[in-house]
């Protein structure tokens, strides 16, 4: 029985609310029927991956995918290439080598449908993967909706979000090339803490530029990074030339992800022993996150459900792409036909209010030009914007998928998001991070619409992290201090006017 208990503890089963004692006993008997092996075999792909299933679908563990899925392989129109910031010519691999290790550069440009996950990465994934898919029965009940709501919960990772899914492989590939130092930016702190966690496992030094507004508002995220050994700077800082210029123009600058990216990229480009890591936006980042959707497909199959609508929050796009891309593959293959809906904040609405154009990924214009939905690389969201999702642009690959009509997008104000988060916390027990509150609010909208129409839709949403270090935002909401931010057309237009004029 001790061995069977150990097996059960390492399987992270699909969770379904309301399991009975008999069902739990049946689950244990089911798990006990599998003999233990000294060495586990690698699971097959999502398109042939095994899932252990109990007859009554009470606890259905799935194996961690052994490959990442690349949606580019299945798109009839390939996305536009990134351009060199000076020549405006397509970027060559050698242009990216000062910033990224060779394997990540290959993945960035790959058109292969599947890419193997290294065994060393899988071993670390097993600390928290597979993550649970949970049916939100209590939320359904309070909403009095016929809809069935499921959420894929990534908050069980050591860093409390989906970000380690890409932090671990990025640090692994840098370590394989003998790199000793990595640098990055972070907004709300989820990415910075995830990279710090990964670096602690592989013995790399980690340096993080955290957006000043978040650095001040979220000290515990900073302390998480420092606990895992990272050095953290508020951005803009006086360490870099970019930071010093920003501070000369505005000594009280709240910072932005674009500024923080510029600072980290400057340090990486100037030091041969240092590489840059990015937590969202780029193709290889979204690629690594597809473990979310691959697991979720098998978990939904295990309970006999097919999503009618898939909802996720979008800032740079990694969480949303990670969940939705494997489902888009199934949709393109004619197996399912869900509505796929991205939700962004009205304070930083790149998909719904931005333009689709080539723009810099950073404020200083050091990065390649990427064709994406953008508010302009000079855009700085208001520091009272409570959540993450602060980036001026959307992932180029996600922007391309949006342009192809394979998904839709809406924006929601932050007070509605936190109202939904409170409902979720008081029914499901989990306090969401500010980012997934957007998806929760949109899910509640859809569930109430089903109440009006009588449709029993299956709604799948992404719960990309917990909000244990974001309680100051909840305090503002509960005390009535949170306000909705208006969309300033003039501010956006001034930023958009500075986008490079590239004909493509």
Helix/strand-derived class? alpha/beta
Shape: globular
Report helical residue fraction: 40-55%
Content of β-strand: 5-15%
Q: How many beta-strand runs? A: 14
Question: Tally the helices: what do you get?
Answer: 21
The main sheet orders its strands as: 3-4-14-9-10-13
Tell me about the biggest sheet?
Answer: 6 strands, mixed
Radius of gyration: 22 Å
Mean of residue pLDDT? Answer: 86
Distance between the termini: 64 Å
* Unreliable sequence segments: 1-59
Short account of what is shown:
The protein has 504 residues and is of the alpha/beta class. It contains 21 helices and 14 strands.
Keywords:
504 residues, six-stranded mixed beta sheet, 21 helices
Topology:
Elements: H1 2-9, H2 21-32, E1 67-69, H3 93-96, H4 102-109, E2 114-116, H5 119-125, E3 133-135, H6 137-143, E4 148-153, H7 164-176, E5 181-186, H8 190-202, E6 205-211, H9 212-217, H10 219-227, E7 231-235, H11 241-249, H12 257-270, E8 274-276, H13 283-289, H14 291-302, E9 309-313, H15 318-332, E10 339-345, H16 350-353, E11 355-360, E12 369-374, H17 396-403, E13 408-412, H18 414-428, H19 434-453, E14 458-463, H20 471-478, H21 489-496
Parallel strand pairs: 4-14, 5-6, 5-8, 6-7, 9-10, 9-14, 10-13
Antiparallel strand pairs: 1-2, 3-4, 11-12
Helix pairs in contact: 4-13, 5-7, 6-18, 7-8, 8-10, 11-12, 13-15, 14-15, 18-19
């Amino acid at each position: 029985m001790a061995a069977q208990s150990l097996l059960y503890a390492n399987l992270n089963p699909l969770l379904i609310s309301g399991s009975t004692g008999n069902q739990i006993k049946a689950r244990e008997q089911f798990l006990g029927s599998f003999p233990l092996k000294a060495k586990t075999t690698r699971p097959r792909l999502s398109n042939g991956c095994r899932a252990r299933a109990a007859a009554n679908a009470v606890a259905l563990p799935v194996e961690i995918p052994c490959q990442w899925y690349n949606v580019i392989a299945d798109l009839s129109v390939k996305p536009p290439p990134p351009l060199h910031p000076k020549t405006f010519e397509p970027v060559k691999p050698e242009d990216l080598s000062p910033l990224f290790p060779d394997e990540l550069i290959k993945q960035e440009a790959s058109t292969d449908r599947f890419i193997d996950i290294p065994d060393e990465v899988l071993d670390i994934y097993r600390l928290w993967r597979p993550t649970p898919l949970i049916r939100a029965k209590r939320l359904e009940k309070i909403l009095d909706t016929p809809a069935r709501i499921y959420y894929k919960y990534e908050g069980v990772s050591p860093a409390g979000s989906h970000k380690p899914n890409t932090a671990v492989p990025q640090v692994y590939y840098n370590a394989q090339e003998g790199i000793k130092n990595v640098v990055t930016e972070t907004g709300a702190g989820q990415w910075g803490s995830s990279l710090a966690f990964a670096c602690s496992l592989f013995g790399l030094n980690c340096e993080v530029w955290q957006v000043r507004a978040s650095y001040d508002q979220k000290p515990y995220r900073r302390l998480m990074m420092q606990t895992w050994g990272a050095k953290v700077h508020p951005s803009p800082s006086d360490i870099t030339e970019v930071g010093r210029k920003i501070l000369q123009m505005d000594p009280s600058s709240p910072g932005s992800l674009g500024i923080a990216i510029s600072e980290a990229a400057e340090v990486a480009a100037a030091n041969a022993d240092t590489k840059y890591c990015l937590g969202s936006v780029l193709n290889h980042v979204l690629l690594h996150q597809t473990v979310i959707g691959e697991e979720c497909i098998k978990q939904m199959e295990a309970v006999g459900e097919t999503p009618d609508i898939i909802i996720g929050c979008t800032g740079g796009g990694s969480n949303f792409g990670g969940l939705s891309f494997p489902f888009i593959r199934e949709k393109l293959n004619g197996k399912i036909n869900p509505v796929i809906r991205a939700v962004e904040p009205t304070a930083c609405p790149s998909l719904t209010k931005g333009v689709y154009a080539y723009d810099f990924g950073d404020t200083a214009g050091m990065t390649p030009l990427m064709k994406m939905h953008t508010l302009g690389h000079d855009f700085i969201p208001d520091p009272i914007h409570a959540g993450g999702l602060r980036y001026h642009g959307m992932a180029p690959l996600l922007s391309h998928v949006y342009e192809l009509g394979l998904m839709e997008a809406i924006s929601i104000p932050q007070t509605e998001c936190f109202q939904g988060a409170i409902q979720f916390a008081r029914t499901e027990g989990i306090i969401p991070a500010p980012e997934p509150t957007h998806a929760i609010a949109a899910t509640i909208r859809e569930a109430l619409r089903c109440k009006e129409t009588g449709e029993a839709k299956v709604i799948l949403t992404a719960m990309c992290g917990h909000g244990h270090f974001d309680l100051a935002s909840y305090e503002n909401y509960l005390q009535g201090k949170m306000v909705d931010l208006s969309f300033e057309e003039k501010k956006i237009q001034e930023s958009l006017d500075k986008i490079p004029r590239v004909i493509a």
